[in-house]
Design a protein that fits this description.
Blueprint lengths: L1 H7 L8 H7 L5 H10 L5 H8 L8 H11 L11 H17 L5 H13 L3 H14 L4 H13 L3 H14 L4 H13 L3 H14 L4 H13 L3 H14 L5 H12 L3 H14 L4 H12 L2
Amino acid sequence: MRATALDELRGRADAGIAERLAATRDADAEVRAAAADSLESAPPAQRVYALGPLLTDPVLAVRIAAARGLSSLPPDQLGGALRPAFDAALAEFVAVQNLSLDMPGSRLGLAVVYQNTGRTDLAEMHYRAALKIDPDFTPARANLARLYNALARNDDAEQVLKEGLQRQPGIGELQYSLGLLLAEQGRLPEAAAALAQAARLLPERARVHLNLGLALQQLGRRQPAQEALQAAHRLDRLDPTAPQALAILHAQAGQRAEALAWAEIYLALAPGDPQAQRLVAELRARR
């Protein structure tokens, strides 16, 4: 149960960070491995501090979880005594995955580590192998699209996402990835359509509503943009981005009172942000 709870925090940089760091020293190996996995998005210094000692853990599962969690760090952050231990644990991770190459999850694990360490040719090969085994394996498809995007191969990324959506149009993650890809290319009407579909499929994801609202705002569709941004704020009241966008949206419409109210929320969430300070000062001066 404790390991499962730690796994639920995976991908979140700050939530429960003290508990996750402490769990890397737990007496139970399953908890230590889950803690290592949960820290994959933690700041680099925290990862090195927490996962470095686990590279020589007596349990294989813990060592390879630590190696995977550290694999995305730049090489210069794993210098000194950590480098040999990391290389050894990473080799163990690869060996374990190679035992089950007929499973898409093992291919995905290898692809992620190879991508993290800059071996993009091998990453692409294993992502594609995972999809050959299971064409509906969403994590491999989404990651392959992100890899292509990072390599400036956006046509390939779009094709991979659209192939997945043709097979399974109800996968919100693929719709969201497609929307972000289209927005990055300036194809805002198409992006807004994909993001709107993603928001319907992922109604509890604040970032989906946020990006939909920003796309609609750029298209001049003020009312649906406002609704999407307000939904984003309801779902994540600690993110200053939606209040910032709402303040600008109301200011552009000449609604100064509403703009100031949202700007003050923005400032309360980001008190050290000079842009928030300027926006509030400008709107107060216009009253």
